[in-house]
Each structure stands twice: as structure tokens, then as C-alpha cells.
Amino acid sequence: MEITAESDALVVLSRLLPQRLVVVDVGARWGFAQAWDRLREKCLTIGFEPDEEECARLTELHRGDQRMRFVPVALGAQSGLATLYLTRDRKGCSIYPPATEAVTRHPGLTDGQLEDTSVIELMALDDWCAAEGIGQVDAMKIDTQGSELDVLRGAEATLASVRLIEVEVEFNELYEGIALFPVVDQYLRRQGFVLWKLGNLAHYAQAGMRTEWQTTETIHYDDVTSTFPAGAGQLFWANAVYLKRDCAYPDAEAGWQRLVRDACITSAHKLFDLSSLALELARKTAPDDVVAEIDAALSAELLQIRREKELVERSAELTGTFRIDVADPSFVGGGWYPPQVLHYGGVRWSGPGRDAWVDLPVAVRPGTRIELLAVGFMTPQIAEALAFELNGVPVRLTTSPHEHGTVYAGVVPDGYRSSRRFTRLMMHTLTPVRWNDANPESDDDTELGAALSWIRLTAPDPD
Fold this sequence. Notes:
Layout: H1 9-14, E1 21-26, E2 43-48, H2 52-61, E3 68-71, E4 74-75, E5 80-87, H3 100-105, E6 114-123, H4 125-132, E7 139-142, H5 148-153, E8 164-170, H6 181-190, E9 193-204, E10 215-221, E11 224-230, E12 234-244, H7 245-248, H8 256-268, H9 272-282, H10 288-314, E13 316-317, E14 321-325, E15 333-334, E16 340-342, E17 345-349, E18 355-360, E19 362-363, E20 369-377, H11 380-385, E21 387-390, E22 393-395, E23 398-402, E24 405-411, E25 423-428, E26 433-434, H12 435-438, E27 447-448, E28 450-458
Parallel strand pairs: 1-2, 1-7, 2-3, 4-6, 7-8, 13-19
Antiparallel strand pairs: 5-6, 8-12, 9-12, 10-11, 14-28, 15-18, 16-17, 17-28, 18-25, 20-24, 20-28, 21-22, 21-25, 23-24, 26-27
Helix pairs in contact: 8-9, 9-10
């Protein structure tokens, strides 16, 4: 099966990395961010998840993928024993006890009520890296329910090589005695990092508050102002992205190798302004053959940005039925290989990452019917685990047979709301499989997941 991958900035840049990136995810429940998949063998992701059952599930789910490693270890400021406070919802467990006042006062936090305790062994990341021979970590994500500063303090030597950190920060106590945002921020600044952005801000309303009203919030990006609907409640936590100072403010004197490596990291986090700047500076010192690759990566990023802008400009509220074939020239998306044309129409395979998406020039509302035709899967397990999101909201689709494959169908759930002016349909698969792993007679090592043929949206009947 001969398929040539579409131009993708991360795929192109990965060819310029002499050494693979190492990404550490502390609190890896549910697995890794999908963007790292696109770096293929040029990225090793290491996940720390103290829940042994979840860690075993993830290990089994990605069995055979040498790019991923899951470690059933809890990280802290230093190695030793600690009390683990077990909450009603186990994803809220922490080495700090739940803040009783916050949990009882805010109905949205009741799953954080304490149910039990256990004793666990902590390990400092510096100690683990030394024992495992990991000499450099390039990026980190930390989400450990209030103990993020402890993890950072146990990784002080490791932080010397880290270029980007995504860390959950708390503004009000969810757990007793935790370090709040100002303390975490000061620590990271002392380690040479600067705050780049805050996202996923989480608010919770007090019991007795009326929450049906809405207001608006505004974010400014130079001359671009983004206004969106907002609700009630007090800010408790958010995700903060920090960059090493010379990554945030790149200079050509750093050399093209350092700049390209940084561009891979920032591009994976969708910081395209930074990745583009680093690549433009890298062109000044790179040899001609590397400049050609950098130009290809820049073109891929600019093309994606331009396509999304054009999509917004031509999007409209869905009325009637909208259908797109994946081989249509107007197809906009990512995470797919170029289309193949078969006797019944076009087909696109997802890969090499686990996420693939299609951007559709319509805005939808609850009750909209979604249908798509899947015509191939590399393994039965990929077919069984296929999952979809619409503008970040999970949608449950049922299956039915079709003469060319399987139709997945469902409706946009009640309560669906999105500020996006177009519709992004995201497909999640298990780790793609190399073609020659399933077909040993072939030497084609293209990594494939699932293949789609068409997508159809039908607006609900008018009220």
C-alpha cells in the first residue's frame, strides 16, 4: 500500500531532529496528548501514573509501541512514604487532604469528598531519571491534584533541560496546604521559566447560587478580541504553560538545531507564533538542505492557518443536509493521509497519530444528526475503540452495516454549545499500526488507523 503523507509541519521537522525528544507526563491517567504522535520515533513519552490498574490498562492499550512508556510510580519532592487521600472520584486523589470547606460549599466539587487513605511510596523525578539513564527531558505535563510544586522540587536537576511545562495551578484551595499559583509561578521563574498562557480555567458555583444566567468574557490578542459566553462560579484552577526564557524569546545565535528542536515542542502545543518565529530564525544559520525542510514546515503551518481562516469566513448555520466526501478538494482537516480514489469514491486513512479531524464549514446545534462511513480499520481493536468529538464535546455514535463498510451515526447531545464558528469533527483511534505489521509480505511501514469515505450532517427539524 503506497501512501505518501501530507505535508505536516511536525512530521517535516521530526526529520531534522538528530536525537528524539523526551516528554514526561506526571499524572498520565487517560494517556498522552496526541500531538506527540506526529513526531513518530523522534519522541519518547513517559507517563507516571500511581494508579497501578490504570497504568496497566494504558500499557496494554499501547502494547508494542516503543515510543510510549507508563510507570506506576507517584512523584514527589523527595523519595519516601506518603499518605494518599482517596476521594470519591478516584481521579481526584492527592497526597494532600481535600479542603473540606471548598468541597462542601461547592456542589461541583462533591466528588472530591474524602473516602479513605492509603500509604504510597513517592520518588523524586531526578532520582528516577538518574536510575533509568534519562539524561535529558524536553517537555513536561504535571497534573497531580495539588502536589505539582512537590513534583517540580523533586525535578530541579531535570528542569535544566526542560523547554516547556504545562502544569495545573490552583488559585483557591481544593486541597489543604497546597501551593497556590503565586508560589508555583515564583518557583518556575527562579528556574528560568516565563508564563506564556493560561487555559482551561475551571470555575465552581456555591450551593444556593443561581447558575442559569450567562455573561461574556473577553480575551485580547494584540488587535484581535475574542468574546465568548461565560457562566457562574469562582475560579479554582487552570492549566498554565511555561517556557524556558530563551525558548520564549528565541535568538538566531542559539543555532538552527536548538531552534528547530524548540519549534517541534511549541508546534506540538499549538504555539504556532513561537514555532514560526523559531523556524524563521533557524533559516539564518541552517545549511541549504535544512532550509528547504524548514520552508516546507513553515508552508504547512501557514497553509493550515489560512485554511482555518477561510473556513470561518465561509461558515454558516447548518440548514438541511451537508455532506462532504473525503476526496473533495474543499476538504480541510489534519491527521490524514492523502485521499485514495476507489470505485465507490474517495477514502482517507488516519495516521500516523491517534487523532484525525475534519473541519466543516457549518455551525450545528443540539439534535443535529451525524453520519459517517468508515471503510477500513487496521485491527478489530481500532474499530471497537473508535471515538468521536464535536468541537471538543464527546458524541456517542452507533454502528450499522453498509455495503462498503460501517456507518457510524448519532445526534449532537442536548446541552451542546460551542463558540467556534465552524464544526471540527475529531476522530480518536488506538495507536495506528504499520501496514507491513498486518501484511508481512509488504515492506511498506506506513502507520494507519481507520479509513473514512464521507461525512453527513443533517439539521434537526425546526421547532
